[in-house]
Design a protein that fits this description.
- The chain contains 4 helices and 14 strands.
- The protein has about 210 residues and is mainly beta.
- Strands 1, 2, 3, 4, 5, 6, 7, 8, 9, 10, 11 and 14 form a 12-stranded antiparallel β-sheet that branches. A two-stranded antiparallel ribbon has the order 12-13.
- Strand 5 and strand 6 form a beta hairpin.
- It is elongated.
Length: about 210
Amino acid sequence: MRHIPFFQLLDSALSEVVPEFSAECRGNWSTNRRRVYQSPNQLGSGSGPFADVVDARWSGTLEASADFSAIAFLATANEIHWTKAPLISTVLPFHVSLTAYADYTPTGATFSANIGDAHLPGVRVVAREHLEESCTLGPRLLTGGRVTCLAETREAAFLAILLPRVILKVGRNRLWRIRTESATQLPSTLRQLLTRRRAGTIRAEAATQPAD
């Protein structure tokens, strides 16, 4: 798992404030082809040239017995992108996709993922002939309050931490935060992520530094 010190700090801090619960992951892969314009300048023209694209998509859900939400992370060698899921429910949609040109030239694909309508940027990864073989999925059963890798390629990892509704307070525009009584127990380095902002990016040099 990339940037382990940062995720270890999250695990350690939240283990003291998150009530024990679990969620089950269910879903499957599907593949389809579509035709796209070769250049953005062609948008709306209806004229070629065109290119054939292959989408390999894992579609599923995370399901628990009580309402929960999530923070999603996309970790690469250089940075961690993170965002809070706006949905709070007993069931959160979860998707992973790999998109590549049908001729696989160059041999690469765009890897992207989302959970509970929390969308992260797509990143370029090395692709295999069967796109889904480029991605390793995580466990079927997830433990709340623990960072779990849900999907990983050689170049990037999609991770999430599930948080129960009981410790969340929802504000404007569905932006939630950890309740004050729980937030006071957290290290100062994590409070902004868990109590204020909706999304952000952490550079690798900051993420790989162990906590004081």
